[in-house]
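Memo to structure team: turn this sequence into structure tokens by end of day. - J.P.
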Amino acid sequence: MKITWPASDALLPIDLRPDADDSTMRRRLVELLNETEAAAAWLILDSGQPLGWLAAPTTSLHGRTAGDARAALRVAEPIEPVDERMIDTYSGRALRLVQRHALGVSTAEHSGSDLLTVHASWSWQVGEHLVVLSTSSVEQALVQLLIQRVDVLAEKIVLDV
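Reply from structure team:
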């Protein structure tokens, strides 16, 4: 799968190969992105500052419909109505989902606390594959800007098998 973005200073590719010499923070981000089985990932920037990340996993449909494959994108218990819509893009119609859910965390400071997490995804059926762009954030002040940036980029993305 080839993903071609429009020219933009809002994207910085992330090398997903593990590197033992990397900082702990970068190594952990790469581990998390690799858990999504992403084929590629990027930092989303605003005026050169990171807003968040974007992962691009690709899934073979194996005879399933795109709707069946997209079911895995839905969180189990959203805490607000899901913002779900089809959008027109250069590469065809895409499903855009924005979901808010509680993520349970246990740390020394916050035993059994919940974080409000926003998960956003954009997905296209390309031949026998489902291509997904996804991001999550607990930074409520930045998440809307992050989603707006990806919306603009998603309109112009070119996906080739």
